[in-house]
Each structure stands twice: as structure tokens, then as C-alpha cells.
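for the record, two folds in this file. i put them one after another cuz i was lazy. first one right below, seq on top, C-alpha cells after. the second one comes after a little note so u can tell where it starts
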Amino acid sequence: MTAPLPHDGGSRGHVLVVDDELSMREYLEILLVREGYAVTSVPSVETARAMLEKDQVDLVISDMKLGSGSGLDVLRTARSRKEPPEVVLITAFGTPSSAVEAMREGAYDYICKPFDNEELRLLVHKALEKRALRQENLTLKSRLLPGLGGLLVGTSPRMRALWQLVEKVAPGRSTVLVTGESGTGKELVARAIHLRGQRAAQPFLPFNCGALNEGVLESELFGHMKGSFTGATHERPGLLVSAAEGTVMLDEVGEMPLATQVKLLRVLQERKVKPVGSAAEIPFQARVIAATNRRLEAEVKAGRFREDLFYRLNVITLELPPLRERPEDIPPLATHFLARLAEELGRPALRFAPETLALMERYAFPGNVRQLQNMVERAATLSDSELLGPATLPPAVRGESEPLSRPGDSGEPSLGSGFNLERHLDESERRHLLAALKQSQGVKTRAAELLGLSFRSFRYRLAKHGLTDELDEPGGSRVG
């Protein structure tokens, strides 16, 4: 057994390699240490168990065939730990049945020899990313429970009723539909349900249904088999299987294509997924929470959303009220956000003047809680004073209108003989698209929200103006 080998720049995670072939152990050690991971290698099931008992391991990479033992034995030991590592199984003798068994037992993924180095690097990165998400959930649980901190800020009757309902539905496994306008905090409510239940130690995986085309959407949700399409270099479990006994949040479910809606309905009914390119179905244990800012009843009537799927998702509905309908929650929310910022900025004396809070309470907040949070961050960041007065708020909140024309202008546009309205509107639309991309730091789903557009409409407009490659979107399709 080798001791952990750290990378010079510091470890990105501790990986346990289990293989009865010395050459393979040494090969994997070299490959992983170069990537910055601390690596321990052992030759057998018994030594792997001893290592898992005494040390913190983030990821196990085990051969399936280990002398008289099996990689499944290592997997079961790893999954029995209080804070289980992710497990990737490697074999030259893989069969679909053993892959299904490994996934059912909780393996992150399964890869066959000979494998491509880049394929393994990506697999390790994704597995450790999933573990980090699970650890984040545990940290959130310890920090936010039992009061859930900022998630429970707000004393209006509607919010008190909402959180009472969260407490009731959290322990169960029923599908929940969370509705509300953009920015009301649908993901926070879904995360609260996850954290308050028995699944808190398992992954919480939010997924934007409107950000991907139909084929990629199905592959991400249900998984795919090796060779099922161009670029499918190995088998991958979908989110529903990867979440294990955690929670998958289907954000913007109203944007899902009709063909995928049919498949999702069957998946929810049967509690099994059929990966793209596979004839076999794999059971999954994850809880599903759906969220949308659309009125799904209206979408059903318009033929854009399946009625049977709507009733399947609508087992329990939690509706988040917009901020304008609970103005009494604005001052405590703003104060909460400021307290968090004060700690981050190292300015503990930051506080709002009473008249500042009064102005915010009278404002309608079309962007809801997200807009309020951004407004507080802007005020705290730009203010030189510890007391945030009305001047730190945007003009619209102070009841002032920003000038639409230069002083001395009549306010009427000048229409010369060469004026072209279509070109003028196109140029204006293009400027707003670029401004939204810049303000959202390239995250297109957020940029769409800033403009009040669906992701599909936003994507169409980008293509229309040739802006599809203007900024790459960091973090994929994740929506906050």
C-alpha cells in the first residue's frame, strides 16, 4: 500500500486506487498525481477496507476483478461509510448486467479497459464535483437547520404558510411542483425541501430543462450508452440515477419539448429510466421536484404541455408569492442580505437608514427577491459610508425617472429621411442582448431572465443577431 502522494500545488482530492496489478496501480498513480490529486493505491479488497476505515477518501477507483474479491465488495464498503466517497469501477470484463448492478449499488460510473486518459480525467473530475455538491449540501444543512437561515426570512402570512407546507412535504418522496415568478426563490424552496428531509446527505442536482435541445436533454436526464451517438465514448448514468437517493430539481419544466415530456411521464410512473441507446431500464431512487414560472394549466390548454404529465407533477404544489404581494418581508430580507455582505466585505458596521428601507418597501420589485439581493449588493459595494442612505438605491426605487433624452431635447425622436424603424429596433435589441450578457457575466440563462425572455426566445434572438458565440456560458445551463 502506498501512502497518499500529494501534488506540489496542493491536493484537489484524495483518490484511492484498488487494483491487484502493480503496473496498473503505478500507471493510475502517475496519471492522477499529475492532475493534482493525492493518491493512495492498494492491491486488494481487504486493504481497501482498512484504508476506508482509517482515512478520508473522496473517490475510489477500483478494478472489478480483484483476485478472490470484487470491485462490488469495495463499492459496498465505500457506500457504507458515514460520508461515502464516489466510486468508479474499471474492468476489462464488463457486461451490461454488471454495469447495471454497479449503478444500482451506487457507483458513480463504470469504464472499460483500455480507456482513454482524457476520458478518465473527465470522469474523475465529474465524480469529485458530485461529491463536492453532496458535501456542500451537508454544510448547508448544518449551517441552516433547523431555522434554514435566510431561507426562512420573512414573516408574512403567506410565507409562514409556505414554510409550514415545506416542513410537511420534506420527509416524503412525493413529487412536488414549485411555481412562482422568476426571482422568487424556487430553487431555494426546492433545496429547503431536500435539506429538511432524509435525503440531505445525498446530492441535490438542479437542472434547467429549457437550456438544452431534446437529444442532449434526454441524455443528461436518463443517461446514454457508449456509442449511442457521436461523442458518447463511454456509458454515463443520467442525473436521475446519479442523484442516488438525493433530489433532482427540474427547473423550467414548462420549457421541456413535448417528445421529452412523454418520456418523463413514463419515467415518473415506472421509476425507471432507459438510457439513450439501451434496451434495458434502470431503476432510480431520487426524488423529483419540478419548478416553473409558467402557468402550466394555461400551457396545457394551449397544447404546449401534456395534461397527464401536469397531473403527475402536480401531486403537491407550492406557490411562491411575488415580493410585491408581501412588502412587509422586504426590510427583513434586505437586512439579512446586508448582514451577509457585511461579513464578506469585512464591514460589520454596514446598515440601512430607516428611510432607505421605507423606499425599498414601497417598490414593486419586478425581479423579486433576486432583484432585491442584487440591489443590496450594489448599495453595499458602491457606498463609502457605513450608513446606506436613499442615494445608494437606483433612481427608480427613489421614485426618480432617469432622463430619456438630453437636456434641451423635446423628447420626440428626430426622424430624418434616412430613418429605418426596423434597423433602429434591431440595433436596440442587439444592444440590450449584449448588455444582458455582460451583466450576467455570460450566463445566458440569467441574461434571459434579466430581459424577461424564455431561454428559447433568448437563444433565437442571439442567433438572429449572430451573437451565439459572443460569450461562452460558464457553468453550463445551471440557473440560480
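(here's the note) second protein begins now
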Amino acid sequence: MADTEDVAVKRIKLSLWGISTLLTILWLAAEPGVFSADSFFGLRAALVQYSGLIAIGCMGMATILALRPRWPEAWFGGLDKMYRLHKWLGIAGLVAAIVHWLWAQGPKWAVGWGWLARPQRGPRAIPDSSLEQSLRSLRGTAEWLGEWAFYAAVLLIALALFKRLPYRMFFKTHRLLAITYLVLVFHAVVLTDFAYWRLPIGWVMAPLLAASAWAAVVVLLGRVAADRRIPGTISALHYFPGVRTLEVAIHVPQGWPGHKAGQFAFATSDRAEGAHPYTIASAWNDAERRITFVVKELGDHTRRLRERLAVGQAVTVEGPYGCFTFDDPCPHQIWVGGGIGVTPFIARMKFLAASVERPRQTIDFFHTTSEYDGDAIAKLTADAAAAGVRLHVLIDSRDGRLDGERIRALVPEWRDASVWFCGPTGFGQALRHDFAAHGLPVDQRFHQELFAMR
């Protein structure tokens, strides 16, 4: 059964705070006297270590999630939720890295300005361990490289958060984060208090750094999810001018494991552009072996596809991903597809039409759009009729905005229904709050994808 957005967000927050809390507890076990430090610079040394561990720990987990691993997807409720955690971990790592940098540099500035007295240090004891001696000899290099890698990471993460950056530029610049992360791993290994490696904090950090460094290398080599990529060929193209949407059918002769309606995949038609995620708009038929995407012209890349794609062209498809799969025991389902959010519902209707045994559910499908294309609506109407779905098409300029009150008026069974929403995030949030205010248990029965991969 697919998780609702509320459940998924709670698990994302649990994971984020769980990682930070675990590292904090292990660090406190390694530094039990931190709160009784006898000087400011003694406290500063401890907090430099702590902030650095939190920063590299969050960045390391974000790097591992960048590999799109299969094992946590079901628990998080889909790759879209995993990418939300990836984003939050990146931001948390950046904040911790800024704090780490301030603790490292701030006291030096204060000494230079005469606000603090430089601490008196005696000669450092020579370590007994040859490994510790080697690491100590690299401290200057690690500090210099780490500082510049930090500046690069700040810039690259800021670019990643800048929504107006074209996807192809995001794809290229975001990959560079793997290089900065590898430098930061070197920085962390050299400058982490050597005593930590013999303690539980080191037992956790060592495999985390090793796994995340390996993940960064995989990203740099362009081998993310390579075992889930399969070759395909474009078999048909159809453009719907009224809604500025391109339907792309891809023949995948071998390797595709099949998919459930509502899942999505990454498709690559131009290596320089990288892989783009699209919801699959077709049910899987092992005899036909075809995947269909419906692509809306929303950005530079999607606007160019109509001219760049051609029947017979080779493409790569990776997936499937996602848990927006319509699995629930409710006797009634309400589907709401806003604009291009219609796509997963098309796939589900095609699946229902082809199924010998359909789920014992009644379904009301509300498709709301600001644009109109007669051919597209005719196909949608035919799909709904074949699947036994009650279709409600609302054109914004003609019918006004769709809201919870209108849905409840047209669906008397709404109290026993689940709601499946795909469309603009703000629209989905408004519907969820509206249904919650009228008593629908949205934690269990309002399903919404967080379909944002950046």
C-alpha cells in the first residue's frame, strides 16, 4: 500500500533527525568532558570536531542516496521522497559546514582583531602510531583543500537550489559536488581527532565515509543505477498542440522488468542533457513491450523534444521507480489530476481496461486543466470508458477552479474514499487541508507524490 505524503514526510524528518542525533550521541560519548572545558579554545577545538562530523555525515548520506538505491524506496514511499531527504541532508550538511567553518576561522579573526588572546601552546608530543604521524603531516594540505572545497560546495549547492537554472546545467554542476565531497572526505579523515577512530563514533564514520566516497566515484563515472538502465527505441510520436504535450512511445525489446501504473522512469535521449524523470503513461504488456511517456513543454529541454526526437531514435530508460500505485482497500477512489498530472491516471485506466479481474472499487477521476485539446480529451474519455471510471473534465476558463466542495458534491461516497492526487504542489496541499477539515483521515487516505527531483 502506498504511503501518504504525511507519513512519508514524517519518515524523512525521522531519518534526518535520527542521523544527526546518532552522530551527536556518539560524539558526546567520545567527548564526555566537552561541557567542562577549561578554556574557550578547548571548547572551540571540540566544536570544530563536532560540526565537522555532522557536516560530513549529512553530506555522506546524501551522496549515498544519490545512487538511487532500491532498498529504502519502499520504506520512504518512493524515490521522490528519497530525493526530498537527499535535498534536506544536503542543506543540513551545508549549514553544519558553515558552522564548522565559522568555528575554525572565527577565533583566528578575533585574535587578529585583538578581541582574543592567542593561546599558549607547548610542543606537541610525537604520536606513537606511524599512521597518526602520517595524518598529522598532511594537516596543512587537508586544511587548505578543505577550505576551498567548502567554498565550492556552497556555490554548487546554492546553484542546485536555484530553480531557474536549466536542468542540463543543474545536471552538470551537481555532479561536480562529487569531486568536492571526495576532497572533504580527505579533509575529514586527516583532521578528525585520531582517538575517535578507536571509539564507536569512528566505527560509524569509517564505513560511512568509505561508502559515500565509493558513491561519489560512481556518480563521477556516470554509473548511477546502471543496472536499471535498458536500451529502447522510439516507436511513435504524437503531439497535442492544444495542451503543448508530446506523447512518446518507446519499444523496449528486453531488460524491462515491467511496472505498475503510477510509477515513473528516467529517460535519456541526449547524454549532454542527462536523464529526465517522467511518469509512465501506459500499462505494461509483456507481449507489446512498450513504455509511453506524456511530456509537457515546461522548460528548455521539453520544448525542444518535438524537434529533436524521431521515430527509430535510440534512447535509454531507467527504472521503474515510485510507490504511487493505487493500492488501497477503500471501496471508492477519487483521482485528481492537475494539468500534466493526468499521466499516472492514464496508465492506471489502461491497466484497468486490460485487466480480467478489476479491483472492486468505484472511481471518480477529476481532470482539471487550463488548456484544451480535443484530441487529448477524446483519448482520455475513451480510456475512462474502457476502464469503467467516471471522468469529470474541468476547463479552468469554462468551469472555474476545482476544490474540495465541488468534489464532495459530485462524489457522495467521499467519506469512504481515498484521494490520489498528482499535480501542482500548492493545489494538492489545499485539497488535503480542505478534506482534513471535513473529517477525512488524510494521514491514511490522501496520497500525493513529491515529484521534484531537484
